[in-house]
Amino acid sequence: xxxxxAPALAAAGHTVVGVWSRTPESAASVAASVPGAxxxxxxxxxxxxxxxxxxxxxxxxxxxxxxxxxxxGALVAHTAGALPLSVFAAYPxxxxxxxxxxxxxxxxxxxxxxxxxxxxxxxDAAGLTALRTLATSLSQEVRELSSEQRLQLHMAAVxxxxxxxxxxxxxxxxxxQAGQPWELLHPLIRETVDKALxxxxxxxxxxxxxxxxxxxxxxxxxxLAAHPDWQTLYKELTASIQRTAAGFGANNEAGK
Amino acid sequence: xxxxxAPALAAAGHTVVGVWSRTPESAASVAASVPGAxxxxxxxxxxxxxxxxxxxxxxxxxxxxxxxxxxxGALVAHTAGALPLSVFAAYPxxxxxxxxxxxxxxxxxxxxxxxxxxxxxxxDAAGLTALRTLATSLSQEVRELSSEQRLQLHMAAVxxxxxxxxxxxxxxxxxxQAGQPWELLHPLIRETVDKALxxxxxxxxxxxxxxxxxxxxxxxxxxLAAHPDWQTLYKELTASIQRTAAGFGANNEAGK
Lengths: 256, 256
Known about the structure:
Two copies of one chain form a homodimer. By secondary structure, chain A is α/β, with parallel strands linked by helices. Chain A has helices at 2-11, 24-32, 61-67, 125-136, 147-177, 186-198, 214-223, 228-248; strands spanning 18-19, 38-39, 52-54, 75-78, 95-101, 118-122, 142-144.
């Protein structure tokens, strides 16, 4: 996250004063990507800054909060989707906030920041204003969300990003084992997503599960015999699609 | 499928002689979309044609083969991914073939046919040539696949299309319940797919499952208490991501 956020902030005209990381190499790498940023060797002597961004995995934020010596009254914001603002409650000397970019970050990927929703929360009005100014310099999609709203959004994001990516990974692996190129599925994947964004996805459901095509389901399950984990997951997903169709009324249109 | 295929064939310069469907309204609707096509009231008196396309759900193809009276020597091709060519073996009077478009079809969607992979198979060389001529008039991605290869491809397509669409549907439903707009997730979903097509998806895996973020996983599971089916699926998918990461070595980069 910091690898993506620091250059974006610098490009938007902000000064990245310093960078700290649990791994010094990461701090050096991030600092090298922004002009004038210092590598911070310790959390004990932090330089003055308008805002301290904790671009850290959720589980690490509490550890860093416990270890760091922020200046009194510092505005400190984490970037985690599922971590409530109350994580700051034990630290009355600092002003807590949240600066959550709703996006998936991998090394080497170029992020289109103007479209990335930035979800803000702050313990006080001045903190919220400061975070909003920072956020609007990066993105056109800035919104204030409560910790509970953010958690719901983060969970929806797991269903929309992390889980589909895993299934795409299984597809990729099965295709490679079959000696077929991944590119063969690209038009299908593109259309699947275009359709899911244009229609409510449940109404766009196609395939053997939703049409209760028992013969095809049996052929697929047999083909997965060498991958018992994926075979189990295939059955779970098929059952979930069928339960959903029974409950919501899905499109049984013949198709793929 | 027929609703999409018939106009595409007509637009490519072919004559759609007639259309039959189990539901006469569907036959009329497809026939109305192509100039000069007759609605066929029966499978007993079929007009002469260079090829008979069975654009039917997999389970219906055997029923139609058993019921229809094709002219002797007719080239008859089904469009199903998981149905082997041997489905024609019991009908020596006709020449069997497969014309499988690797795409998901829903009413109202415009299909970009030139990019749709068309997977062909035929019982004889002349049939394959005829299907290839038909296919290359629609698409630039025509390939001959055996029944076994096509089954593998079709299963990979279920993992890449039908299953991710279901998860996107769950995401959509959870977001709606949280009072948040679906559009908020669009940049994330776009980047997820762009990344999965550019990198091997397993190496692009992010999120609480792959980084073993137990606190976030527990918060998400608690949030799903009202949806026990989805809570179970959440746990299954999380476990599968973690097993995969243990086996394949995934990117534990902090991120979403």
